[in-house]
Amino acid sequence: xxxxxxPAPGILYVVATPIGNxxxxxxxxxxxxxxxxxIAAEDTRRTGRxxxxxxxxxxxxxxxxxxxxxxxxxxxxxxxxxxxxxxxSDAGTPAISDPGYVxxxxxxxxxxxxxxxxxxxxxxxxxxxAGLPTDAFLFLGFPPRKAGxxxxxxxxxxxxxRTLIWYESPHRITRFxxxxxxxxxxxxAVIGREITKRFEEFMRGSLSDLVEELNRRGDIKxxxxxxxxxxxxxxxxxxxxxxxxIARALRDGRQSHSALAKEVAVRFxxxxxxxxxxxxxxxxVNDGAxxxxxxxx
Length: 297
Description:
alpha/beta; five-stranded parallel sheet; 11 helices; 10 strands; 45% helix
């Protein structure tokens, strides 16, 4: 690595690191990691592999959720003494659903300079490729562990118009997606899995479609981000408007009832069962009208 000026003393650098592909790191981040006196890492083994990949030998000290209260005081003393320290998490941006908030908060409170070195974030990477609205979104981190708190959180978000983003573990994603569907009804949603890694995948569709796909697969692996469309406050709220839309589609005749039910459900926030029932009802109205017309000729 080329020679460069050392970082300013007594600064805490919050350094974003790759979420998968080890080459997804900025040149500035590499320079900072090379030049600081030490790196506070969530997992020293994982960060050690990243440093080795880029030929960096800066000393590491562990800093994770189980020792952050104790280790924060030690790091603050070093910063106050003039050391430059880089804070990294296992992947992505520190303190964003990762350890780091306590250290950053205390550094700011004590007047120690904190400088962000921006880079990867799984939530932003997933949002950029999801195909959902990006002008306004709400990042919610990991869902609450307790079922009651999850239900309460979801019910409080049912009328939220912004795109919603969660992280979730692979062994809980099926349950949580089902709970979102139960709370919200049908919405367009996206699951980003193993983003930037070899087996990167985006699953897109209605919430019920995603639940079905997750159930079919059974064993899900990898880092997962769930994105859900916000509540469409402009959608028609009365059955007549929905029936008119269904009637137009039935007259057009280009879609099967199943495909139409799926489209209507996602567009109007219904379950597919509700949408299908409305389609059958409308078909009965149309058949009756044609029958009446036939008797009159």
